[in-house]
Amino acid sequence: MPMNAKLFLPALVLVVVLGLAGCESSRYEPSTGLPGAAPALPPIPQPATEAEVLVRAATQPVTPPDGEGWRSLFDGKSLAGWRVTNFQEGGGVEVRNGLLTFTKGDPFVGVNCTNEMPKVNYEVVLDAMSVSGGDFFCGLTFPVRDSFCSLIVGGWGGSVVGLSSLDGADASENETTQFITFETGRWYRIRLRVTEHKIEAWIEQKKVVDVMITGRKVSLRIGEIMLSKPFGLASYSTSAAFRGIKIRDVSEPASKE
Questions:
Q1: Separation CA 243–CA 12 (nearest Å)
Q2: Measuring CA to CA, how many Å separate 175 from each of 147, 154, 193?
Q3: Of 5, 57, 107, 134, which residue has the fewest beta carbons closer than 10 angstroms?
Q4: pLDDT > 70 in the chain, percent
């Protein structure tokens, strides 16, 4: 082989190898950034802290309830008219920025109203929010004639709504049981109406309870929730916030059937 051919072949191989390397480099090079660098990943959003959720909650406007005759049960400034429920391993209760706030207990945290409450023919409205946690953020215990009952919102893992108890059956196992997905950091308008023969309840505009109680056993679930009577708010392994707690007298159910 001629000498110039021997010199040409290695040079040709080197050119081909460098060319291929250049093609591979350009194939994987991102449109921006350093040559050969992996594409930048978007930052992973971090969940809001409880303090951040409460700051946002306090800035959201309150919609007045429909109708007339409402009386406020919470002044937005203090626990006047309320006392902290003596739950074992109870969490923290505080009034801040116009909100009644619960820091999750182990498992309960709550308050009782110290004002005299009616036993029948009344309606309650309030806004409630789950701040963090995975169980009920609103357990509203209320009088029903000579007994008591609880409206559970977000129980049994965060989605069960219903009355505890009817004929001994809890909110998860009677005809009032519903499953609703609730968002953390969102206000929900809760309305309860108790008349002589009926209990009704709404979450936002959805009617979630409509039950005749004539001839029924209405009672509380056995356990610490009984400390919430005669009228109280509680949450279970969950931090929560409340505002706009009001009551008024009524004479009949919203629906007469």
A1: 81
A2: 19, 16, 17
A3: 5
A4: 81
**Residue whose entry in the numeric block shows the structure tokens 């002589």:** 196
Question: Dihedrals φ, ψ of 227, to 5°?
Answer: -70, -10
Contact 57, 98 (CB under 8 A): no
Mean pLDDT of 47-66: 94
- Which pLDDT tens digit goes with each residue over 198-213? 999 999 999 999 999 9
The residue count of the chain comes to 257
pTM: 0.82
